[in-house]
Amino acid sequence: MKYKLFAVLSATVFLFTSCYRQHEKKLLAAYIDTMSLRNGDLIFREGRSVESTFVTTLDSSNYSHVGLLCKYDGAWKVVHTVPGESDNNVDTVKSEPISAFLQPDRCANIKIVRVSCESHIAQKAVQYALKRVGIPFDDDFNMADTTKFYCTELVWKAYLHVGIDISEGRRHNVNVFSFHKPCLLPSDVMMGNTIINTKLE
Question: Which residue, 105, 94, 106, 47, is CA-closest to 70?
Fold first, then answer.
């Protein structure tokens, strides 16, 4: 009986340790060298959701989402807007810690791109985005509507506000079921020099 109990306990400890190490590995894999970052850098993410797969199917890149990096109160955060990740089921522009943006269940790949401009210009783009925190997610994907934003629209308008069109006129004409309109997808705003490009798994 003692040997059986010991065997069960040993197996339990082994499974727990293995699971913990796998979890720890995923968390460590999401670490980014923040010393190389600058306010206003674009952080692209390949998500793991069905919606993310849909976006990457439409787009020519491997990325489904984008936000703006900014540092305040001594911590790096991401200003972005995305459906289905709010605690209160209200999707808005938000600022959250980079660790939340890179949660393993949300993120498979990342790419960080620096727009070619002076740092004070990039900072002004960040300020534009921060002032939009709390504005609803644009589920109509209407770029003419300034009362709502979707992710690529937010970063595009933030830089357009300071005189830089990071889309350089690129658009995707999306025709799916009853949805027919030009949209900005991640590859449309991927202008600049790649700072970090890594697979987080």
Answer: 94
Q: Domain limits of the chain?
A: 1-31, 36-199
- What pLDDT was estimated at residue 34? 84
18 pLDDT band, cuts 50/70/90, is: very low
DSSP 49: S
**Strands in 137-178 per DSSP E:** 172-176
Task: Note the pLDDT tens digit of each residue in 86-113.
Answer: 878 889 999 999 999 998 889 989 999 9
Residue 201: predicted pLDDT: 57
156 neighbors 163 (Cβ within 8 angstroms): no
- Contact predicate 169/175, CB 8 Å: no
Q: Specify the pLDDT at position 10.
A: 38
From CA 169, how far away is CA 83, in angstroms rounded?
A: 25
Tell me the β-bridge partners of 42.
68, 113
Residue entry with tokens 């009853």:
178
For 6-108, strand residue ranges (E) read 42-46, 65-72, 75-81, 93-97
Q: Is the pLDDT of residue 3 over 80?
A: no
Going by DSSP bridges, is the β-strand pair 109-114/93-97 parallel, antiparallel, or unpaired? unpaired
CA–CA distance, 110 with 35 (Å, rounded to integer): 16
CATH number of 36-199: 3.90.1720.10
